[in-house]
């Protein structure tokens, strides 16, 4: 099984992913680690990525997912996947590859962003991400107002138990 944690910056994709990975003893990958340098540079300057920036990155992540599926290995991936077409590129099918949308209010997301430091993600990109976001109509949606452990409990109960 592959679980892709999706949502805008500040929703806790990495925190929930690491927590879930430890609980399940599954591999965890942060999609941000796979961005090419050009994408990282744009984001650090507060420039939102466009589809042409994202496509090669998403194809790389899809290859990682497909490798795990082919080998029968479980994994968790943190990836914003803000648009349906991005989720389609990742191969999310809600059968072998499940999406979990980490949903929070704009205010909560902003509070979390202000309280953290990110290697290259400019804090003012939240507005752009929220404009881009196409909330998924399939997959699991998890409210992030609780703790990361609460989110993991919901994910395990819905997808693993």
Describe, in plain words, how this protein is organized in 3D:
With 161 residues, the protein is α/β, with parallel strands linked by helices. The protein has a single domain (2-160), classed as Rossmann fold (3-Layer(aba) Sandwich). It is 47% helix and 15% strand. The protein has helices at 13-24, 37-44, 51-70, 84-90, 106-114, 126-132, 148-160; strands at residues 2-6, 27-30, 75-78, 97-103, 140-143. Helix 1 crosses helix 7 (148-160). 33% of the residues are buried.
Architecture blueprint of SSEs:
Elements: E1 2-6, H1 13-24, E2 27-30, H2 37-44, H3 51-70, E3 75-78, H4 84-90, E4 97-103, H5 106-114, H6 126-132, E5 140-143, H7 148-160
Parallel strand pairs: 1-3, 1-4, 2-3, 4-5
Helix pairs in contact: 1-7
Q: Helical amount among residues, as a percent range?
A: 40-55%
Would you report the number of β strands?
5
Radius of gyration (CA) equals: 15 Å
Count of discrete alpha- or pi-helical segments spanning 4 or more residues: 7
Mean pLDDT value: 92
- Here the CATH topology equals Rossmann fold
For the biggest β-sheet, the strand order reads 2-3-1-4-5
CATH architecture: 3-Layer(aba) Sandwich
Which residues form runs of ≥5 with pLDDT under 50? none
Q: In CATH, what is the homologous superfamily?
A: P-loop containing nucleotide triphosphate hydrolases
Largest sheet: 5 strands, parallel
Please report which band the strand proportion falls in: under 5%, 5-15%, 15-25%, 25-35%, 35-45% or over 45%. 5-15%
Query: Distance N terminus to C terminus?
Result: 13 Å
What's the shape? globular
């Amino acid at each position: 099984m592959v679980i892709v944690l999706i949502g805008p910056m500040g929703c806790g994709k990495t925190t929930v992913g690491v927590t879930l990975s430890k609980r399940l003893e599954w591999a965890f990958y942060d999609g941000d680690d796979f961005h090419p340098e050009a994408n990282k540079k744009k984001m650090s300057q507060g420039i939102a990525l466009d589809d042409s920036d994202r496509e090669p990155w998403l194809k790389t992540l899809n290859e990682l997912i497909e490798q795990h599926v082919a080998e029968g290995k479980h994994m968790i991936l943190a990836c914003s996947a803000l648009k349906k077409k991005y989720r389609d590129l990742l191969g999310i099918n809600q059968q072998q590859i499940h999406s979990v949308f980490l949903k929070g209010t704009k205010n909560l997301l902003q509070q979390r962003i202000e309280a953290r430091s990110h290697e290259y993600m400019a804090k003012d990109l939240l507005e752009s991400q929220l404009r881009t976001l196409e909330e998924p109509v399939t997959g699991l949606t998890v409210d992030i107002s609780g703790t990361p452990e609460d989110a993991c409990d919901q994910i395990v109960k819905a997808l693993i138990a």
